[in-house]
Amino acid sequence: MTAAATVEQPADPAEESVALRLRGVAVRFGGITALSDVDLSVAAGEVHGLIGPNGAGKTTLFDVISGVRAPDGGTVHFAGSDITRLGAVSRARRGLRRTFQRVQSFGWLTVEENVLSALEWRGGGGGLVADLVAFPTRRSRERARRARAAEVIALCGLTSVRNESAGSLPIGLARMVELARAIVDDPRVLLLDEPTSGLDEVEAARLGERIQEIRSGGECAVVLVEHDVGFVMEHCDRITVLDLGSVLAVGGPAEIKADPRVRAAYLGEA
Prior knowledge:
Layout: E1 18-29, E2 32-43, E3 47-51, H1 58-66, E4 73-78, E5 81-82, H2 88-94, E6 96-98, H3 111-117, H4 127-133, H5 136-155, H6 171-183, E7 189-193, H7 201-215, E8 221-225, H8 229-235, E9 238-243, E10 246-251, H9 253-258, H10 260-265
Helix pairs in contact: 3-5, 3-6, 5-6
């Protein structure tokens, strides 16, 4: 792990450095409160962990951030703009990307096609005419797309399987395909939902290396929901702990491990 991965960040990033900020987020399912007055701030280049017991509201919070679910109260700001009412597609196109606990690759497509699919929305320019006559600009953009896809495929250790169908891959490689698809279009915030689920120790270590590389440029923030507390403590700069839909604690790994409330509610210590 790099030294940068262990440096604890301030409890609340300065406004100019914030990539993602939630204020007073609330979600209710009928008479059940899933989230209550949740605040969250994540700086550009930060790896931020989100942990808590089952039912704490972690996935619901990810759904709110990614636009899958609208909050009943509060706001979501991304890169300085209020995106609370934007849908998931609009957020993704602005650079807020997400992976899921259950791998959601296109199993019938090859690894390369899966990664290229994340760039399709940008188009090739020139419309149908350009497709028919193969304008030079269209060919140039296609070469650039494929070069970028090849770069990310290599970063994620997928070059040897780039032409295999994603649905035929073991879980470790399948998760890397989903990660490659999420980062190929240069995200500003990357949400990883249980990224180590189903991975062995070697695969989890490789994933940790990729996370550090993704954030190393200082522009992309990574937020991860993860049950593997050791992975979170090793790779996150700051951690937010949820319990029963509310924020229990926020701090660096050492602070969180030492917090008696967290130890009692989540880490299994009195």
